[in-house]
Design goal:
Elements lengths: L8 E4 L8 E8 L5 H13 L4 E5 L16 H13 L4 E10 L1 H7 L12 E4 L6 H5 E2 L2 E2 L1 H13 L10 H9 L8 H5 L4 H8 L24 E8 L3 H13 L4 E9 L3 H20 L10 E5 L4 E5 L7 E8 L5 E2 L9 E5 L23 H4 L4 E5 L7 E15 L4 E10 L5 E11 L9 E5 L2 E15 L4 E7 L25 E6 L7 E7 L6 E5 L6
Parallel strand pairs: 2-3, 2-4, 4-5, 8-9, 9-10
Antiparallel strand pairs: 1-3, 6-7, 10-11, 11-24, 12-13, 12-23, 14-22, 15-21, 16-20, 16-22, 16-23, 17-18, 17-21, 19-20
Helix pairs in contact: 5-6
InterPro entries: AB_hydrolase_fold (IPR029058), CocE/Ser_esterase (IPR005674), Galactose-bd-like_sf (IPR008979), Xaa-Pro-like_dom (IPR000383), Xaa-Pro_dipept_C (IPR013736), Xaa-Pro_dipeptidyl-ppase/CocE (IPR050585)
Keywords: Hydrolase
Protein name: Peptidase S15
Length: about 525
């Protein structure tokens, strides 16, 4: 590296290689040997690709300190330059990998000169602070501490600790959160300390971690795989749309997967082999004609589209109504719903997109019984309702304190009354960032809050009902809102916060769903064999 630090790598060379070949570069913080090598490098090497799997700075023998997301551009570009100087490299370099491996691609691909041949940044996104760390201002502490416990212990050896999930949950109950990394990792973890120290609006610490402002027109062809329950999903879909708008050849597959599920990893391997063979060895183009393939959940089918979001999907509003109902039009008049959020007893969450199981769908009864959750339910559907695209909400709310969270969740209620989550979203209100493009003051302290829920492809079956939850948090997925300006990592004292949620003609609170009409003719594929993965 330019600063004199040496990074180590494993180099896979096809047997009998006599001339320079292209290189598939994989940059990973989890070890260049062992499980990850067997999962990502070895399958490509067995197919005759030359693979260079590098341990990122400060991990598994590479020099320096591992400060995640902050050094990957400089180190990645230096690695590209070094590779091109080697006699066994013909100058053509591609990159692949998922999650953090995908981040290392975003840190390099828009800036590489000469450009990379192609990339495959799976289950990741170009912008990580809003996607992974602070979702619309709300710190994702469960993901942050789960990952910190993993990277803090990964080089100590031994078997995985089956009690770790419980330890993470217990640690997140503590206040302050600043040093709970020690409870799960046995020592301070630099990433966790950075995560809690640099969460305030306007903090520039993570500027090197985000690449969504890069010139996407300089990107090489891109192939991506992600899952509807993957925590990077929203950012991945945003990246795909931006890449296509910049004229970049891009493809994406979205399945019914949580982050790193076996089905997701199998799809990564399958698409990578075809993608690299086409771009590095002149093989046939990928067999699927459409650039967008998505799994329609609860219908066990794959759909194919020419773009994302699909033009065939039309927006349909479900307005919050009086007596806990949902309606096509807002009520002429209705008293606001009220609840009090208490950080000493934070509103819990179940299911959803998490870094590790449990996640995905879950019975929401324990949440919906609480007094700090408003529930609005529509009538039984007379026909299947296929949701394909971006889900969003606008909630009119007035809070007693200016520091508050607005959490919205869309659910599918079956004929037995079981409510299961489909997608959700959160927006943290803070006087330092409000008003904003997505939060405007209407009158008398009432705010119109736009909440971006996750995108989805999901069938709500005939006979089921659509339900919307509105609450003031989702703990421990997100840090509890203490009702004060104190940073979340050092806060110990919280204040209760009374919410008023308005839903009348002057305050038409609603969710907006992307409804796909079968008559509009999306291309429908065969039933999916990996739907149970």
């Amino acid at each position: 590296m330019p600063d004199g630090i040496s990074l180590l790598a494993n180099h896979y060379v096809p047997e009998g290689q006599e001339k320079p070949l292209p290189v598939v570069l994989i940059r990973v913080p989890y070890g260049r040997s062992g499980l990850y090598a067997q999962m990502f490098a070895a399958p490509l090497a067995r197919r005759g690709f030359q693979v260079f799997m590098q341990a990122t700075r400060g991990t598994f023998g590479s020099g320096g300190q591992f400060r995640p997301f902050t050094t990957e551009r400089e180190d990645g570009l230096a690695t590209l330059a070094w590779l091109r100087e080697q006699a066994w490299c013909d100058g053509r370099i591609a990159m692949t990998g998922g999650s953090y491996f995908g981040h290392t691609q975003w840190a390099v691909a828009p800036y590489a000169d000469p450009p990379l041949v192609c990339v495959s940044p799976h289950i990741t996104s170009s912008e990580v602070t809003g996607t992974l760390f602070y979702n619309h201002g709300a710190p994702q502490i469960h993901t942050g501490l789960t990952w910190s416990s993993s990277i803090g212990r990964q080089e100590r050896g031994g078997l995985p600790d089956p009690r770790m999930r419980g330890r993470v949950h217990a640690a997140l109950q503590r206040l302050p959160l600043q040093a709970v990394d020690v409870a799960v990792a046995g020592a301070p973890v630099p990433f966790w300390r950075d995560f809690v120290a640099h969460s305030e609006p306007g903090d520039k610490f993570w500027s090197e971690a985000n690449h969504n402002e890069a010139d996407f027109s300089r990107m090489p062809p891109v192939s991506m795989v992600t899952g509807w329950w993957d925590l990077f999903l929203a950012g991945t879909m945003t990246d795909y749309t931006a890449l296509r708008a910049a004229g970049v050849p891009a493809r994406i597959v979205v399945g019914p997967w949580l982050h790193g599920e076996p089905g997701e990893l199998r799809m990564v391997a399958k698409t990578d082999l075809a993608w690299l063979d086409h771009h590095l060895r002149g093989g046939p183009p990928p067999e699927d004609a459409a650039p967008v393939r998505v799994f329609l959940q609860q219908a066990d089918r794959w759909l194919a589209f020419g773009e994302w979001p699909p033009l065939q999907a039309k927006e349909q509003s479900f307005h919050l109504g009086k007596d806990g109902g949902l309606a096509a039009e807002p009520e002429a008049s209705a008293a606001p719903g009220t609840f009090t959020y208490d950080p000493a007893d934070p509103t819990p969450t179940v299911g959803g997109p998490l870094l590790q199981p449990p996640g995905k769908q879950a019975d929401n009864a324990v949440v919906e019984r609480r007094a700090d959750v408003l529930v609005f339910t529509g009538p039984a559907l007379t026909a299947d309702l296929d949701l394909v695209g971006q889900v969003k909400a606008q909630i009119y709310v007035r809070t007693e304190l200016p520091h508050a969270d607005v959490f919205v969740r869309l659910c599918d209620v079956d004929p037995k009354g079981v409510s299961r989550n489909i997608v959700d979203g959160i927006r943290r209100l803070d006087p330092r960032t409000v008003p904003a493009d997505d939060v405007t003051e209407v009158a008398d302290g009432v705010l119109a809050v736009d909440v971006e829920l996750f995108p989805t492809a999901y069938r709500v079956k005939a006979g089921h009902r659509v339900r919307v939850q509105v609450s003031g948090g989702a703990f421990p997925r997100y840090a509890r809102n203490m009702g004060t300006a104190e940073p979340f990592g050092t806060a110990t004292q919280g204040r209760t916060n009374r919410f008023e949620v308005f839903h009348d003609a002057d305050h038409p609170s609603r969710v907006v769903l992307p409804v796909l009409s079968a008559a509009e003719g999306s291309e429908v594929g065969k039933p999916a064999s990996q739907s149970s993965s």
